Amino acid sequence: MVMERKKMEETYEELRRLASRSAVVVFGISDCCMCHVAKQLLIGLGVAPTIIDLDRNASALDIQAVLHHLSGCGSSHQLQPFPAVFIGGKFLGGIESLMACHINGSLVPLLKDAGALWLPKFLGFKAAACKCN
Hints:
- The radius of gyration is 17 Å and the shape is globular.
- Helix 1 packs across helix 3 (60-71).
- The protein is built from five helices and four strands.
- The chain is of the alpha+beta class.
């Protein structure tokens, strides 16, 4: 089904608004294993991402069509573009892009620049020594 141009533009603006409301936003589907991997990676790095599960969203099909376009998936009959990760309101990509950034070391600086990480050592504070037994 081809979306009308006006509808696509409205949906794109809604997606942009949703993606900009937090430093890190992950669009996904609640039972998607790769979405779970992306969420766990971000949480493990100390990020509190905003999670938007499209299977629980009234605009899901329209947003999904825009995500297909952004991710280069083309036809909506091809692979799902999930997870779709936005950092600082900008589309990073899917799980492949997220993992590539993590492996090559560029993910933490992206997260820091977006304000998604609070890193005291970058602010000039020293971490307290743990005195646990």
